[in-house]
Amino acid sequence: MNKTRGLFWFRLDLRLHDNPALSALSEQVDAMTCVYLYPETFSSSHVPDEVGDGRCQKLFRDQSLLALRDALQAIGSDLLIVTRGENSEARQMAWLCEQLKINVLGVTTHGGFYERKAVAQISASITNLKIVSEQSVTLFNEEDLPFEINDMPNVFTAFRKKVEKHADVSPPADTVTALPPVLDARCQSLSLTTQGNNGNFIGGERAGLNHLKYYFGETRAASDYKNTRNDMDGWLPSTKFSPWLANGSLSPRTVYQRLRRYEQNVEQNESTYWIFFELLWREFFHWLQIKHGSDWFAYSGFQSSTPDTCFDQQTLKRWCDGNTGYDIVDACMRQLNQTGYMSNRGRQLVASCLVHELKHDWRCGAAYFEKQLIDYDVASNWGNWLYLAGVGSDPRGHRRFDLQKQADYYDKDGSFRATWLK
């Protein structure tokens, strides 16, 4: 009897907890292999190759992958890490499926335009390949939303009011504790390194769950979140869940579950609601990108107006390097380049500077963030840049900040600027 052979494609779900697609595949095959396609280099038409090194992002990703491999090996499985090379993801995955004689491909559903396109291309290119997909990137499943995707509001407040009243957060799936026997992959797995330092940010599922436990179990930071969330630096002013959420080492439904437990056992107030409020912003951008497809990356976004900006390589490089002359912006950019992270307030200020003060194409800023951020998320990153550039979901149009006023308010004593402008 021919055995059913499965391949699970890890993408932005680098975990065993709340991974229903992995569980579903394991129940339908006799043997399986887990794979991750590793992007060797970052290339964008909006950012010159020599600007930014992406080293912090790479370190966080490598730590996350090695942690996932260890977790899979602990339950008798393994992770094959394969370089994508010059092939597209779809072509490389199709090649692997054919080489390994795969009958069933498992993959977590994702809202990104190119992520969805890749799965569709694989399905179209291989006859009789069954694709098993489940949702776990978001709080809500698509079928639970109180509207069709094409009818969802383009403005956050209208979206929030609808989902708060009519949509339930899906509970996390059980943690995967066993998988079918491993297929003989006969492929060279890529060697990774974890040498380097991203401060308190350590990649991987265990590190993400440990931080979740620490934040809600050993601190009361959640009770004061709304008052501290705009701080420019520090570990506890904001939740810092975003890097683990971005690559899927941490499930948003698990974060929500732990938040609700905190509210039940410790305190429920405006600040704890605001953590949920921020999770809803993440949710909003996820579903909105599906609605607008490739327009998510278009110069004019999904609005009818076109920005009055241009591309200038020297101007872009000064912004990327933190040499604009606006001290609050330069401090934020240098923080990003050294740590792979920047506060939410900082991201708004540097985006406003690039678009409104430097009159530069917003897509270059979005692409640079894509290269540098350890918490890069296609929906939230590009959605926020669309918003700041006035071609996305902001009902008031261009969001321009008075940079000096912002610096005086959010860095009153100048300590943040002094730290990063040394």
Quick recap of the structure?
This protein has helices at 20-26, 55-74, 89-99, 113-125, 156-166, 205-217, 225-228, 242-246, 252-265, 270-292, 313-321, 327-339, 344-357, 362-372, 378-389, 403-410, 415-420, and strands at residues 5-10, 31-38, 79-83, 104-108, 130-134. It is α/β, with parallel strands linked by helices.
Would you write up a description of this structure?
With 422 residues, this protein is α/β, with parallel strands linked by helices. It has 3 domains: 5-135, Rossmann fold (3-Layer(aba) Sandwich); 205-294, Alpha Horseshoe (Serine Threonine Protein Phosphatase 5, Tetratricopeptide repeat), CATH 1.25.40; 298-420, DNA Cyclobutane Dipyrimidine Photolyase, subunit A, domain 3 (Orthogonal Bundle). It is 46% helix and 7% strand. It contains 17 helices and 5 strands. It has helices at residues 20-26, 55-74, 89-99, 113-125, 156-166, 205-217, 225-228, 242-246, 252-265, 270-292, 313-321, 327-339, 344-357, 362-372, 378-389, 403-410, 415-420, and strands at residues 5-10, 31-38, 79-83, 104-108, 130-134. Strands 3-2-1-4-5 form a 5-stranded parallel beta sheet, with helices on both faces. α10 (270-292) packs across α15 (378-389), α13 (344-357) crosses α15 and α14 packs antiparallel against α15. The chain is globular, with a radius of gyration of 22 Å.
